[in-house]
Design a protein that fits this description.
A hairpin with a 4-residue loop joins β1 and β2. The protein has 299 residues and is mostly helical. α1 runs antiparallel to α2 and α6 runs antiparallel to α7.
């Protein structure tokens, strides 16, 4: 498995490539909007503008996350990425609401014409295959490297081919004389953008609020099933994530007669077992406190 530094370095390279691609796609979509005056294509263009901001913030955040822990940040800088994603999610939601409002107003009152040509169909078809290529490339690289940030990015980009198909469908229906379809398509795209914003916000709050990553009862059961009676109890179990890895802490109650050396060795064995059992998780650290088990006193 790649180290955090290697993971972030590879992620930066791929994000830089998608940044460049997004800049080109924005120019193409801007041209489409100019020649069509379509609200659906404006929403489509806005989605790419947000993608560009998203990738730019992600690039900056991964650079910050690569910095090693220091005196002021003993747990590292991984949460920079989470704070960046909060900004992105809020931007997504407000943008969706703004364009959605304009689309509803256009649907109710009309007042514009969408200009469609063969050129528009050709460009949107090309965009469809470009987005498919980006999504599948990122997902394949994720499967080879296990870089989680690329998995999230790939699933985000897989919605873009669907949005492109929606735009193509809108163009076909509009040409048949159903003019309200442009506003409807724009509203649907805004719903997709807004849903993406809420999903990102939910995932990010999980990190920023230090939510539990692993059920404490599962950890307790694993430890006691494998180490009882050497470990008499396991409690004060805490897990949290910074978005890139997991921190785990727990207390073991052991026979008060065992030596410090044996207690230390036992803690290492428990740590090794937990890393093997949760091999799909990347642990920054596992801290195990060993305590003497005291029998309750009878009055």
């Amino acid at each position: 498995m790649l180290s955090i530094t290697e993971q972030m370095s590879k992620a930066q390279i791929i994000i830089a490539c998608t940044l460049t691609m997004n800049a080109i796609l924005i120019m193409i979509k801007g041209f489409l909007f100019i020649i069509t005056s379509s609200l659906a294509i404006l929403a489509y263009l806005t989605d790419s503008l947000i993608d560009l901001i998203n990738d730019s913030v992600a690039y900056y955040a991964t650079r910050k996350a690569m910095k090693p822990p220091d005196a002021d940040h003993p747990y590292g800088h991984g949460k920079y990425e989470a704070f960046a994603r909060v900004f992105i999610s809020i931007l997504l939601i407000f943008t969706a609401l703004e364009i959605g409002f304009e689309s509803v107003k256009s649907y109710l009152f009309g007042g514009y014409e969408v200009k469609i040509s063969t050129q528009v169909y050709i460009i949107t078809l090309i965009l469809f295959f470009v987005y498919l290529g980006i999504a599948f490339t990122e997902y394949i690289i994720y499967k080879k490297t296990n870089i989680k940030i690329l998995e999230a990015s790939a699933w985000h980009y897989i919605t873009d081919p669907l949005t492109t198909l929606l735009v193509i469908g809108m163009l076909i229906i509009y040409e048949k004389g159903i003019y309200m379809v442009d506003s409807i398509a724009a509203i649907l795209i805004c719903i997709l953008i807004g849903y993406g914003g809420f999903r990102v916000l939910k995932e990010t709050l999980f990190v920023l609020t230090d939510s539990v990553v692993i059920d404490p009862e599962i950890i307790k059961r694993i430890v006691l099933e494998n180490f009882y009676p050497r470990v008499l109890d396991c409690h004060a179990i805490r897990t949290r994530s910074d978005g890139f890895g997991v921190y785990l802490e727990c207390h073991l109650l052991v026979d008060p007669q065992i030596s410090i050396r044996r207690a230390h060795q036992l803690a290492h064995e428990v740590e090794e077992l937990l890393r093997k059992r949760f091999v799909n998780l990347r642990f920054h650290s596992i801290i195990i406190h060993v305590e003497p088990h005291e029998e309750p006193h009878s009055d």
